[in-house]
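Q: My collaborator sent me two sequences in one message, no labels, and asked for predicted structures for both. Can we handle them in order? The first one she listed is below.
A: Yes, handling them in the order given. First sequence, followed by its structure tokens:
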Amino acid sequence: VGADKVWAALPLLEYDSSVAPAIEWAFGNAFICKDTDTATKVAYHPRIQVRCITLDGDSMDPGGTVSGGSAPKAGASVLNHIDNLHSARKTCETGKAELQRVEQEMSGLHQVAGKYHALKQQVDLKRTELSLLEERLRQTTHHQHQEEVDRLKVAI
């Protein structure tokens, strides 16, 4: 009914464990709603019928009690602060999950980079060995004879 405009009140509260029974009794069957229209829909829905409190402090009770409706105060209400805190926590959790994903990806990239550098080092070593072998081959008598034969063929 309320989609992303309704939250259970109890998880939004922080309280001492010594007052837990009283808090659970007072807020255990209550929802926090973003606006009055949503609170009315949720509170009077035939399958829900639970007390709803808006971020402005209005209260809708399916028992017939409606309170609030006063002009907005100069400062933001406590419920608005709770809503902002709830949103900030969700953003923080999303950011932490993204950070963890990026760190795992970076770890994988570091492993690939290490393998790349090891293989590149081996290739460079083999190239150096090849150039040294070619140089030694040029200094053999067989290679010198082969060069002389090639020069004679060109001369003939």
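Q: And the one she listed second?
A: Here it is, processed independently of the first:
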Amino acid sequence: DLYRKVFVFRKDPSDAYVLLRATLEQPLQNVTVCLRSYSDLTRPYSLFSYATKAQDNEILLFKPKPGEYRFYVGGKFVTFRVPEGHGDWEHVCASWESGTGIAEFWFNGKPWPRKGLQRGYTVGTGAAVLLGQDQDTFGGGFDLYNSFSGELADVYLWDTGLSPAKMRAAYLSLSLPPALLAWKSLSYEVKGDVVVKSRLRE
């Protein structure tokens, strides 16, 4: 249970990452990823990377520059432009549904205009799920200059879309539905220079 804790990625650039263990028995038609990050990086970095042997960017949350997020499903991405960070925590939730090909993006508890992405696609199983690096090959192939440096917390992955009320609940750290990956019951392995610390501020 990592409640009120954070992963601190100490170095920049870095080869460190956190490997997450999720039991994924069936392919995903719907996905929601939420997490909170705190960083002063201005170069590109990867937050959440879900790769399969067939597709390295099966699900990816990537920040190419300040004020911009990319959400990948099956190797294709949509871009969401957000206010420039002011040295504060940023909470993002990205969800996608295969049936409509709609991608939703929530930034600090508010929805951004929805976009179209990979209608009819299915996200594969047998995944390597990493925080802090962008996989260019299954479980590896890192570009150090896409590595994350800073603090990460409140990481979740669901195989459903979340209602607007639950999206806001994720931002406010309220109770949430059972997840494939949940911050309060996370099975993980630290690889390299990442330290678990208490959160300094809300």
